Amino acid sequence: METSPLSTHQKALSINLNDKIYGTLAEIGAAQEVARWLFRVGGAAGSIAKTMSAYDMKVSDEIYGKSGRYVSRERLEAMLDKEYSLLIQRLSADRKDTRFFAFANTVTARNFAGTNECHGWIGLRFQATPNSEPNTIILHVNMMDDSSLAQQEALGIIGINLLYSAFMIEAGPLQGLDHLSDNLTDGQLEIDVADLWGPAFADTDPARTGLAMIRSGLAQAVLFGRNGNQMPPTEVFRKRPVVIKRTSTRYTTVIDSATFAAAGELLASEVPNLSNKPLNVTEFSVNSVHASAGITDDNLDHLRELIAQDEWVMLTRLRQSYRLTDYLRRYSNEPLRFVLGVSTFTMLLSEKFYVDSTGGILEATGKLYADDVRIYAQPMPLDNFRQHLESVGLEPDWVSVKNEREDGLVSIHNIEFKGPTRLLHTYLLEAGWVEELNVNH
Questions:
Q1: C-beta pairs of 83-87 under 8 Å, 24+ apart in sequence
Q2: For residue range 68-104, what is the model confidence (pLDDT) as tens digits?
Q3: Which has the closest alpha carbon to 346: 398, 383, 381?
Q4: Which of 76, 128, 299, 411 could serve as 200's disulfide partner, Cβ 3.0–4.6 Å?
Q5: Residue 313 has pLDDT above 80, yes or no
């Protein structure tokens, strides 16, 4: 029987009452919420060696060194380096049976006008056993609440969850990541980067931690760079055109470079004066209409194979394509192009896949084709087209193929829908929101 998670109060108190855990907390940007939890539950002298908050930039620079940005991974790592080394230098000789830690965060919470991006970096450096080499966890978080106070509360909760997961979960700190979402409500906070290293994480990699984040429900998407490491979407997608190809566990793990090249040429013909080179991303969904929401070892193997190809890969739990538009439009209003097979485009026109959307297919269509969003649909063999639709339970007579081409391929121009869907299909074509993408392999 599954038990309810401990409350944040219970977790904070259990940390304070463990006399073998001792450390420093340094928090910048949204009050000292994690330290506040430890102080208010009582017994904080048992766990806290020091708390601090260097808000003034000059003071912060004097303590941690100059930084180009104060809400950045660079600043967070400087905080962890400084505070952990001071702690060990000052106390390790006197407390040989203690597991030391340094917790830090640097965040920007909602400003008075509500115009800023609310995000930050959270980090923990800790010993799994006394006198051992330290482990490090670094998280990038997006704060989704609409008030500064609510964001502060969420930061306090996830900070206590992180400390508890590192020290108090019997299965170890890696399994502890599954508990980062305890006592947070859906939509309060997202984690899109989780970087872990040290002896406690010897058997993990960015793909495994990315999948753990998706499984916990705290991440909608995790982006992997060409070096295989997790990257913050806010820094990568910012003001950048994007070409994105959706895939899932049902399909090949080979990244289709020829398709991306053809899509890039088509985009360049549409928009000759792009401000930046498009970013080509293969999206791997564990919750698409083609695959179940269950996360398995097969998902991990597939993801690792994609990442190993030194291209941009994004793991998501976004079921419908219009949700991916919403997600990417947080970061860039530059051209966004989806590369799909014609069968997948056909699925986009089925009401079956929008039962969880209050506005149905019309709402989904409006959100998918936001400003400067288009679909590039690849023709495909007729047998593959039919098999793909049958695999997701679409009625075979709902769409038919007319005027078969000499090459035997099905395209956006030779499919015909029954009922009012045919009008929506015609509208998308005539509006130029969907274009045929021909690829020479």
A1: 83/24, 83/26, 83/50, 84/24, 84/125, 84/134, 86/24, 87/23, 87/24, 87/49, 87/50
A2: 788 999 999 999 999 999 999 999 999 999 999 999 9
A3: 398
A4: 128
A5: yes
Asked if residue 146 lies in contact with residue 140, where contact means CB atoms within 8 angstroms, the answer is no
Whether the pLDDT of residue 18 is over 70: the answer is yes
Pairing of strands 434-436, 373-378: parallel
Show the 3-state SS of 425-438. Answer: HHHHHHCCCEEECC
CA trace torsion 179, 181, 185, 189 (10° rounding): 170
For 140-187, what is each residue's pLDDT tens digit?
Answer: 999 999 898 999 999 999 999 999 999 988 777 777 777 888 999 988
Report, as an integer, the average pLDDT of 234-247.
Answer: 92
CA distances from 400 to 249, 346, 408 (A): 27, 11, 14
- Do residues 15 and 39 make contact, with C-beta atoms less than 8 angstroms apart? no
Query: Distance of CA 12 to CAs 27, 37, 139, 141, 427, Å?
Result: 17, 6, 20, 21, 57
What does the alpha-carbon distance between residue 266 and residue 223 come to, in Å, rounded to a whole number?
25
Give me 250's structure tokens. 């049902």
What contacts 360, CB < 8 A, 6 or more positions away? Answer: 351, 354
Q: What are the structure tokens assigned to 144, written together?
A: 């989704």
Which pTM value belongs to this model? 0.90
- Report the distance separating Cα 144 and Cα 219, nearest Å: 12
Q: Is the pLDDT of residue 252 over 80?
A: no
- Name the fold adopted by 8-215: Maf protein (3.90.950)
Question: Sign of the CA dihedral 214, 219, 222, 228?
Answer: negative
Longest dimension (CA), the chain: 84
Report residue 273 as tokens. Answer: 């004066």
- Pick from 192, 191, 140: nearest CA to 314: 192
> Is there a contact between 345 and 434 (Cβ–Cβ < 8 Å)?
yes
**pLDDT at residue 1, rounded to an integer:** 40
Using an 8 Å Cβ cutoff, are 283 and 314 in contact?
yes
The residue among 271, 232, 258 whose CA lies nearest residue 117 is: 232
Taking the alpha carbons at both ends of the chain, their separation in whole angstroms is 53
Nearest-CA neighbor of 313 among 378, 227, 249, 250? 227
The SS3 of residue 49 is strand
Residue with tokens 């505070």: 83
* pLDDT score recorded for residue 407: 81
Phi, psi (rounded to 5 degrees) for 180: -65, -25
The pLDDT assigned to 315 comes to 93
